[in-house]
Design brief:
With 108 residues, the chain is an alpha+beta fold. It has a domain of 75 residues. It contains 2 helices and 7 strands. β5 and β6 form a beta hairpin. The N terminus is likely disordered.
Length: 108
Amino acid sequence: MFKSLVLAASALASALVFAASPVPEGTRMRVLDPSLGTGDWVEGRLKTAKDGCVLVFLDRKSKTGHIAASVAGARKVEMLQGGQWVAAPVSAINASQPQACRGGGDND
């Protein structure tokens, strides 16, 4: 019985592993987010933080002192593709990260 419980727990843990982000890490991104202290786009690169949240790590600190912005929390998110800015697949990116990361906000 103990062995079957261990196997069931192992299967459940495997199901909780999140899919890889549909946008590769390191992709050039830009976010429009008033909490960064500007009404303009702020650029950076997509990266998964240690906690599994997918963030845009900014090229430089924002006016409000942030070093990263949440993909889930930004007003608009675009990615550089073929030399042009296009809307990023925010819903798909959010689905690839833990539930706790999907609420938005930003990283100090």
